[in-house]
């Protein structure tokens, strides 16, 4: 794969696929950016290109528009924020013909945006010919392509993979960092290698669990997904999150972990409540003693202590998924303390997952080696799957 430095960008129009899919909120003059983390993360590559004299056209999606232009999902407020961060005015072209005209008028170091790429339904079409048609039109805007949206690299989409086959292409700095980190984790993690998994759904993360069991020394499971594991061991889980259709698969994981000598740990105690809400009565109970009608919403103190002790011995830790309903103060302790233990571990520490990253920001935890910008993409990387956006870069012109 080429690197960004290998592209001769001076004086040329460079199409840059970034992930500027940020949360919006209602402002006085319409939607405004509620959290600019992803915009900030995209700035390094843009500045690299600008200082080398490139003329940058940024392409991104935003939200889930229903296959046509929708002012609610316009990139205008995002471009305005990007312009503030760059100290430039960043205009938005409404469509590809307008982008072509505007790009031709750019000077070296200028930056503009193309309007939300998902206003065009061809972007996410399942039909390769349809996507390639859009990619062909996009490629007429500029001469080179830089792929910097790690959060979409696992998608087969016109502005992610198809376009990289049509223009000389390279990964941006953000994607390069992510690829370096996850390649290291996949190929030669230092041991002990500990993975901490949580979050709401086992089914989302099933494939990665199977693969991780071949690689890790310790697998610590908390969050909502733990209850399917506890149920697989025959425990009553009350009204806790449970995916009954996954119990058999999870039994297979428990057996595989035993067979391979992987230390798979489940919660030994839980913080439970009768309601999914704050300000209600909570209790701490052993993991096999959830009363009927109650639900587990966080891991308990004994579990936190066990997880902390395993994490403190680790040389590599990957964390994906909160340990409890961290959004509600009563159930946030597990996520906060386990997060802090991971950040304090002197080995390589990596956080993946949108909600996990949000928890890290909410608690102000610092000191991780890397906080990934792509939840789904990072999990697919750890599964050993080929990510379409990266494959396309490898096969680029
Ligand atoms: P990530 O985005 O980091 O991959 P997920 O999307 O898988 O994480 O899960 C995050 C959600 O899981 C959070 O909103 C959190 O409230 C929820 N969650 C964690 N533990 C529990 C639990 N015990 N019961 C219900 N929901 C939970
Ligand atoms: Mg999530």
Automatic annotation (TrEMBL):
GO terms for biological process: gluconeogenesis; glycolytic process. It catalyses: (2R)-3-phosphoglycerate + ATP = (2R)-3-phospho-glyceroyl phosphate + ADP. Pfam families: PGK. CDD domains: Phosphoglycerate_kinase. Its EC number is 2.7.2.3. This is phosphoglycerate kinase. Keywords: ATP-binding, Kinase, Nucleotide-binding, Transferase. Monomer. Belongs to the phosphoglycerate kinase family. GO terms for molecular function: ADP binding; ATP binding; phosphoglycerate kinase activity. InterPro entries: Phosphoglycerate_kinase (IPR001576), Phosphoglycerate_kinase_CS (IPR015911), Phosphoglycerate_kinase_N (IPR015824), Phosphoglycerate_kinase_sf (IPR036043). GO terms for cellular component: cytosol.
